[in-house]
What we know:
This protein has helices spanning 7-19, 21-32, 44-57, 129-148, 173-178, 231-252, 308-325, 349-362, 377-382, 409-426; strands at 61-66, 80-87, 90-100, 119-120, 123-125, 154-162, 189-192, 200-205, 207-216, 268-276, 293-302, 330-339, 342-343, 367-371, 389-391, 406-408. The protein is an alpha/beta fold. It folds into two domains: 7-205 and 341-426, Zn peptidases (Aminopeptidase, 3-Layer(aba) Sandwich), CATH 3.40.630.10; 207-339, 2-Layer Sandwich (Alpha-Beta Plaits), CATH 3.30.70.360. The strands form four sheets. The protein has a six-stranded mixed beta sheet. A hairpin with a 2-residue loop joins strand 4 and strand 5 (123-125).
Amino acid sequence: MSEAAAPPVLDRLFARIDAMRDELVALTQDLVRIPTINPPGDAYRPCAELMGERLRASGFAIEYLRAEGALGDSDRYPRTNVVARREGKRPGKTVHFNGHIDVVEAGKGWTVDPFGGEVRGNKLYGRGTCDMKGGIAASMIAVEAILRENIDFAGALEISGTVDEESGGHAGVAWLASKGYFSPPRVDHVIIPEPLNVDRICLGHRGVWWAEVETKGRIAHGSMPFLGVSAIRHMGQFLDRVEERLYPQLLARTTNMPVVPEGARSSTLNFNSIHGGQPEGFDGLPSPCVADSCRLILDRRFLIEETADGVKSEITDLLDELAAELPNFAYSIKDLMVVHPTMTKADAPVVKALDGAIQDILGKKAAHICSPGTYDQKHIARIGNLHDCVAYGPGILDLAHQPDEYVEIDAMIASAKVMAAASLQLLSA
Ligand SMILES: [Zn+2]
């Protein structure tokens, strides 16, 4: 630890965070009680204002930024983000905490009110407690504790509440990044308090390729299928090849990224949906036809050691092979989305600062992990071109999107201390 963050200062800081426990719980409850469900993207403005007006009272400069024209934005469902900035007493770097304010629908199976914010012992329940309003509240308490203790820091502290992470982040972090909000010199270090457990630092994530494959046939009477070409049978042949040849290859291909859970250290492929022939949702008797189209949506998660082009050609090679072997086999393929893998270096400043704080506060070595799926770090890396960014925050990842989602209050307190101490370390120059 540097001189500016010598033990007496940290003791005061941690005592302050402990004393703010009730405030932390109340803030998390207030955030959870605003049902920012996405889709469609409800109540973003009041949630952004809850964060912004509270931080304004702590001396932050506040900007509300509606992503007009971005994917998903409309007058009915405005995509309002909030960015708060508080300058230190002298120039220096900026530490930014970014949290997404949207939550997924509650779904079924709850035994408590999903938007009630009920507390039972050490657990605070509700949709978004874990993913990730508990993390947002912990980061706000962390910076407020620094300010209330009047602890000196160089540079600036920023907090943003952004929209639409659950649906790709286009009107949230991606839009802000395109406006320079996630690039040096404005911002240098970013911590995203997603629920990764208090003793783990998430360095990055695997890549994604979504695509639609369509096999094409020729319609004919169902009583004389030999007069047509069945797109469904052709799709079946493609699926057989994937099953026999590609799945074993994907399983054998593993990454050096520390992805959790273990199974996600291999390349994976999920068939998201498949449809051919008679339209779905029609409950009358079918008309007897040979299917002239069959469509499959692929969700391929790829490793940092793979390339998007290589991943795509594995699929098109199988399709081309079938086209060469089988008369009348025709297909088309359409890219739906590509997200490249990203991983922050294990010795990056933000990682080292969190490593040190976790060791000091929790008395254990931080685990470095990567996520099987993507989150907003992709936009900060690719659009913002900022590579000192990780996810770190309270909550158990497995509880995200589940019924009876909760966050542990002790974990919020511990992570607030880690975030505050790491910030001071980064801003001590
Ligand atoms: Zn999340």
